[in-house]
Amino acid sequence: MNLALWIAAGLLAAVSLTGGITKTFIPKEKLAAIKGGEWTGHASAGFIKTIGVLELLAAVGLILPAVLDIAPIMVPVTAACWILLMVGAAIIHGRLGQSTLVIVNLGCVVLATFIAWGRFGPEPFTG
Fold first, then answer.
1. pLDDT truncated to tens, each residue of the chain (127 aa)?
2. Where is 16: in which H helix or E strand?
């Protein structure tokens, strides 16, 4: 179970890191032109960058607290916050008729739920 939780956290951190870098460093106009990035055309640049920074922090929060053994409780807390972020993303993509991206968002919700449940419950980092 511990290995499965680490793998799930690694996958989610990779997704978060990719999205965070994209939203933080690629200009809004370029994001809006990419398939799946149409939602950015309706959002402010500041909002997009804020989401990007939150995703970068999530990538860190899913891995480093446990690896460094500094506040490892932040791993399931980060996963719980990721659930909220992905539900919001699914709503936005759903309103735009992007069902494939809604499925991706819901897949991330499943992974984050597994991590939060596993680390709060049967496989916490602290004994």
1. 999 999 999 999 999 999 999 999 999 999 999 988 999 998 999 999 999 999 999 999 999 999 999 999 999 999 999 999 999 999 999 999 999 999 999 999 999 999 999 999 999 987 5
2. helix 2-25
Of how many residues is the chain composed?
A: 127
Whole-angstrom Cα distance, residue 104 to residue 87? 11
Q: Within a 10 A sphere around the Cβ of 77, how many other Cβ atoms?
A: 16
Round to whole Å and give the CA distance between 124 and 127. Answer: 7
**In contact, 21 and 46? CB cutoff 8 Å:** no
Instruction: Report yes or no: 83 and 113 within 8 Å, Cβ to Cβ.
Output: yes
DSSP state of 97: T
Total-model pTM: 0.92
Query: Alpha-carbon Rg of the chain, whole angstroms?
Result: 15
Give the separation between CA 108 and CA 18, rounded to whole angstroms. 13
* Structural tokens at position 2: 């511990």
34, 14 contact by CB (below 8 A):
no
